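Quick entry, no commentary yet.
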Amino acid sequence: MCLVLFLCHFDCKSTIFFVDMQVFYYFCSQINIKMSIFEYIEQHSSAENDVLKQITRSTHLEVINPRMLSGHVQGRVLSMLSQMIRPKRILELGTFTGYSALCLAEGLTEDGKLITIEHNDEMECAIRRNLSLSPLGEKIELVIGDAKEELRRLGDKAQGERQEKFDLVFVDADKKEYCDYLDMVLPLMREGGWILADNTLWDGHIIDPAYDKDKQTVALRAFNDKVAQDERLEKVILPLRDGLTIIRVKQLVN
């Protein structure tokens, strides 16, 4: 049995495709399964607090590409990892509307601090507004600027004065710069510190030959290979949303 699908193009010409009905039903069933599993995970995970719900809503109403938001499940993962690590100092590269920064800040020690660097200056007002909604916002320092330039400043400052190392770093900025971020972040970290790198599966493009010339995909492949080959690092990639790599710094990097 076949199903006939008609697709109308802009030139008003129709193209006919014949698809086996069993294949079609299987495809639909897989979509439904994936959707229901994700909904099941959300329903059986800790809820967002009211502030995070408000940020989620305002981001979807006001910002282009709201899917860049970490979201409910990943936000809970970031929070839980941070609470397990109990960092005193956190560095975040790329915060979008501030959602992930607040999630990570949930695990800070009482005297802890999070520095978040965001390149897009058009987001500054929204980020500061969102951070101000939570008492945790007082522990977060927002820096608007290029991540690599700010990392250089942090490196220079660390050499010029006695400065505490970072316990946890979350990387979610320009995908093309992930390899450089890693090289620049490692000297700023304490031995046994943790790095979380987002989007490392890149919607599956990471293994799709169709994206061999895509600059972001190529850069993320290089990053994944670099991390995998570095014996100073323990690492695992979680298939969470777009891929989340968890890295532990085994050896102190000078």
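second:
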Amino acid sequence: MSDFNEDLFGDDTDPDGHTSSLGGAASVQHALARCAREVADFVDGEGWGQRPQLFALVPTAVLAAAEPGLLDDLADGSALTPIQQHSLPEDIGGGSPALDEFLATTTWPEGVVGCALVQEIVVLPPAAESALDDALVPLLADRDAADDAARHAAQSHPDRKDGRLIAAIVKDGPSLTLLQMHPDDDADPFGPVELLVYENLAPGIVEGLYATFDVVDDD
């Protein structure tokens, strides 16, 4: 675990959706980190208790070429611009099988080169997670039953903490997953959003985001 530190398409859209306009690998990684921070700040501004939110990531240069009127709003130097999507059904909650099913049916138009998903989750200490895994072994034959039991147990656990998971990817490129813990009651409400980086956090979500860019044959 470590603290996170951020060091409408026209004819200019790359028809293959390549990310070459973002520069080399280091530039793409930096652009993704900066975009993930922007998404985290945006969602945090609306407070806690929100439903999952999905964002399309679009090269800022492409967006500015398609919508010149947005140039003033896009002039902060960001190579990627997140665009909030409003297509998630209201009954989809964070970590639910319905969210996995929604991502499995999600596709993107040309010009979108990445995406980000934000959802609120329950965080348990390692010892509690291990005990919960052992208790759910008899239910693993029924995935839905195991998922429901896991969510109920986590929600009712005395050591639970609320968190916000931010997962972002660039197709055929890097991914970044961040965790924001719910601040304590005495925390500065105007302080910066504290984001943590965990290695190999939420690999299933990351895989699901990459899968939204898989090419599906019409036949």
